[in-house]
Amino acid sequence: MARGKLRIYLGAAPGVGKTYAMLAEAHRRTERGTDCVVAFVEHHERPRTEVMLHGLEQVPRKELEYRGGLFGEMDVDAVLRRAPAIALVDELAHTNIPGSRNAKRWQDVEELLAAGIDVISTVNIQHLESLGDVVESITGVRQRETVPDEVVRRAGQIELVDMSPEALRRRMAHGNIYQPDKVDAALSNYFRPGNLTALRELALLWVADRVDEYLNQYRSEHRVSKIWGSRERIVVGLTGGPEGRTLIRRAARLAEKGAGGEVLAVYIARSDGLTAASPKELAVQRTLVEDLGGTFHHVVGDDIPAALLDFARGVNATQIVLGSSRRKAWQYVFGPGVGATVARESGPDLDVHIVTHEEVAKGRGLPVARGARLGRTRILSGWAMGVAGPAVLALLLNSVDIGLANDMLLFLAVTVAAALLGGLLPALASVAFGSLLLNYFYTPPLHRWTIADPKNIVAIVIFFGVAVSVASVVDLAARRTHQAARLRAESEILSFLAGNVLRGETSLEELLERLRETFAMESAALLERQSDVEPWTCAGRAGFGPVLERPEDADVDMPVGDHMALALTGRVLPAEDRRVLAAFGAQAAVVLDRRRLQEEADQARTLAEGNRIRTALLAAVSHDLRTPLAGIKAAVSSLRSADVDWSEEDRAELLEGIEEGADRLDHLVGNLLDMSRLQTGTVTPLIREIDVDEVVPMALGGVPEDSVDLDVPETLPMILADPGLLERSVANLVENAVKYSPGSRRVLVSASALADRVEVRVVDRGPGVPDEAKDRIFEPFQRYGDAPRGAGVGLGLAVARGFAEAMGGTLTAEDTPGGGLTMVLSLRSIHGRQPVTESPETASTPAPAHGGPGSAEPERQTLC
Fold first, then answer.
1. Is-contact 252 294, C-beta < 8 A?
2. 233-355, which class in CATH?
3. Is the pLDDT of residue 623 over 60?
4. Cβ atoms of residues 827 and 846 within 8 Å
5. Is CATH 2.40.160.20 the classification given to domain 504-602?
6. Which end is more exposed in the chain, N or C (fewer Cβ atoms within 10 Å of the end residue's Cβ)?
7. Per-residue pLDDT tens digits for 360-374
8. Taking the complete model, does pTM exceed 0.85, yes or no?
9. CATH number of 6-221, picked from 3.40.50.1820, 3.40.50.720, 3.40.50.300, 1.10.10.10
């Protein structure tokens, strides 16, 4: 069965009209005859959204009981049995009520898609998992309901439902989003203009990035090499010199002038080494460009202008920023330079900016790599010296007679110059031509090809031998220089790569992307298989159009071990590059093994934690639960005994013992269940505005009346918390304090306001806890000091902290002045930044409820 398609309406904030837009699309599909049903849509008591549900078939919800109430969730089985063509599922990031089929609604949607049902859903930008920290820094609210980015990225269509902050605030003020009693608080907190503007920008940029991915994929699939200037991308060409910082800052200013501008700094190293760059300076420039929001790239290429243009066209750049040449005037005789060449060959689609700097015309200032491939200019110069040099020298010597010995020395000098410039072949040509000229013009008999004096024969032979030896030495030195430079280049690349891998800074995909950039390939993939007869599977890939099935189909196939291979597409690499490629492959295998070992370690850690909890539970059952059970059974057996006539006092005492044992059992079992919920992540707080003085006194029911002093002023601001969780947290803290306080000293429970927080303090005068143990006492199954086994299983403080953090608060331990321990429970008050009151349908979401319509259907912009 073909997998269903997912369409998502994405909004920057609640109320922009995502649900309205989804329902309007459903009506259009239904009118066209498409089988469309409402699997789950929450209208949040918004009349216009509720009206849009009329005329659409709705699948009945599944009723679940939770904490004494009934809540409706999407009935996945009913939708699967109904098998519509399209299902509407609102609020993709919603956390389901405990007891549901899946923990998250997006997991329900995955089941529908796997069954071949198309799904239309909604989500707000703040619920994307990767943006949690960014949204918290903007709004001050940590989102507890999130959806993995990959789920949204896989959507076939993402439609942005956009609205200006001013229009959204007007819609809020008119009562079209929340109830009137919540409007003022929302407008002054989450729905401030600055928050809405920042969230809107975040949504626009995120969707723009997705559009950019689709565009690059399309260009790659259709082999589009022409630049499409849909977005300003500025490539900065770096040489490793100090002027690179100036170029990066200039490019960043250019990027700021265009919406969504992007800066890509690239350093192109010759294949014969990195000798033309300062690694320290390149590291500084990498940090600078990343701090400015750009990216740094390292590419290998012998033809720097061509490599730079290929890179720019490959990333669909619109501008290139280069620095003015550092070469002096006389150095231009060797060519026009990189800047002029790039500007000439860039074409009409690429703008080239030549930026002046302080190093202009001051000379290269950097060592220039000289490999075995001496360069076209040097080779031509060597041939010119080897052929024309002896002829010119002969013309000059014909006008003056300085002796045969001096003539030979001058011809030898020309040969050495030809060897230094062009290597062995020009030098051999020079020595052969020079020997003939010496014989014809300067060795008696003159102007004849014979030699009369045998001594002159010896001299010419020595001249020939010396010239050939010098030329051979020069050529050998050039080849050794090339080998040393290339080995140095390889060592620097591999040391940098190995450093990142050993520090764990490089993922498999990042490593393959660096491999692709280093060798200027179109794609790179790491394939593996279990045995020689098993099919290949892709463990990681980078670039567009990678080979995913057979390594031999790629342009470059590099085996890595017995059942792993690197597959690269783009061009055929020379044999000398395969050594570095093999090292990349070995590192990729190491990264893959490390990732799998980390996953296994995480699983083992989870299993170990589960085993530890099970062991502690067995210990609790074996003693802490068995003791009150034994007391209860003994008391009941005594009461039922017909042999003893119990007095009313004895009967009351036995019943009191039964009640105390049952209370103790209830307390222990409650803590065990709460710890299990915390461990499995199923605690779902129902946040609302409450008064501290309403909840804290209720938490003191489990301790003797004369053991606690209560100081909670009625003038405290209201807090945002779950009453039930808050009561359990305070109750555990008080019971713990009473347990360790001396009999004559009362526990003090006080509350006070501090900035935008309200702090509840539980103060005891017990033995206290050392600083090094203050964090450890909050771990499960920890009992400080020599507490007896009957003192509990050590879960009270762990449960209290877990509940506090679930409500967005904190629980810490401090020393009590004069001795003892103070537990500080800090919670948000309504004077600070706050999440909107949650309903059961949006439980555990600190942000406002999911979107809804306003007075009219909102404007929408389809981006992808």
1. yes
2. alpha beta
3. no
4. no
5. no
6. N
7. 655 544 333 333 455
8. no
9. 3.40.50.300
